[in-house]
Amino acid sequence: MRRIALALLLATTALAAPQPLFDGKTFTGWEGDTAKTWRIVDGAFVGGSLTEPVPHNEFLATVKKYHDFELTLKFRFVGPAGKRNGGIQLRSVRIPQPPNEMSGYQADFGDPEWWGCLYDESRRKTVLAKSDMAKLAPVLKPDDWNEYRVRCEGPRIQLWINGVQTVDYTESDGTIAVQEGHIAVQIHSGPAVEAWYKDIVIEELAAK
User: Fold this and answer.
1) Residue 171: HSE in the Cβ half-sphere, 13 Å Cα cutoff
2) Whole-angstrom Cα distance, residue 24 to residue 31?
3) Residue 2 clears pLDDT 70, i.e. is over it
4) Considering 29, 61, 70, 102, which has the largest number of Cβ atoms within 10 A of its Cβ?
5) Among candidate residues 92, 98, 104, 88, the one with its CA nearest the CA of residue 63
6) DSSP 8-state assignment for residue 101
7) What distances in angstroms separate CA 204 from CA 9, 66, 104, 149, one per listed residue?
8) Please, which pLDDT band fits residue 10 given cuts at 50, 70 and 90?
9) Could you tell me the sign of the dihedral formed by the alpha carbons of 44, 69, 110, 105, in that order?
10) Is the previous residue joined to 191 through a cis bond, with omega within 30 degrees of 0?
11) The pTM is what?
12) Of 187, 178, 201, nearest to 123 (Cα)?
């Protein structure tokens, strides 16, 4: 019995150990338009351009799918404020037809009040939970690095930016059956701007 208990404990610990999703140097484990849209600069994924508008949404996605997890990463914009927008896809699938959108939950951020919202990208196409900007504004750094923390556990999705919780959402729509999918980072269509992402770490949650 002791051996079984120890084995279960070790298995749970191994499953829950935080792991980097990005090595800071290569696109290993990720797929997307790495020929034009996405590049790696100073240990960060960079999407978009400061010289040309972004013609359509572009996503850099994990090859692997994830179910229940806690994700942390740092993000920022480079470029003039106004219509900047990006996000982190959660439990999402790639739409095979061009321009290869992602469909699923998105931890959103951008001007003027997208910071910390939960959006349903290319599926219901609506804000599922809106953040309280009055609560978030004191800790938000619109032109510098911020930290997103995301926790997906069963039907519940929680979001934090810089330690302030912005969303606590539980899925109630029984037709939304997907509780597993890819993680992706986004640069939204729009003006010439860059979205930067780094220090991407995931902790897969052990089944209860």
Assistant:
1) 20
2) 15
3) no
4) 102
5) 92
6) -
7) 15, 8, 19, 13
8) very low
9) positive
10) no
11) 0.90
12) 178
* 74-86 confidence digits (pLDDT tens): 999 999 999 999 9
Strand runs labelled E in 30-84? 30-31, 38-41, 44-48, 58-62, 69-78
Residue 14 tokens read as 């191994």
Query: Can you tell me the distance from the alpha carbon of 203 to that of 114, in angstroms, rounded to the nearest whole number?
Result: 26
Cβ contact 151:66 at 8 Å: no
The predicted-structure confidence for 105-147, as pLDDT tens digits, reads as follows 999 999 999 999 999 999 999 999 999 999 999 999 999 999 9
Neighbours of 108 (CB within 10 A): 27
Q: Where are the domains of the chain?
A: 19-204
Question: How much is the pLDDT for 4?
Answer: 44
The candidate with the shortest Cα–Cα distance to 75, out of 202, 198, 191, 169, is 198
**H/E stretch holding 119:** strand 118-121
Q: Under a CB-based contact definition with an 8 Å cutoff, are residues 139 and 163 in contact?
A: yes
Amino acid present at 125: K
What pLDDT is recorded for position 178?
Answer: 67
Pairing of strands 146-153, 127-129: unpaired
Q: How far apart are CA 199 and CA 44, in angstroms?
A: 8
Cα torsion 195, 93, 169, 153: sign = negative
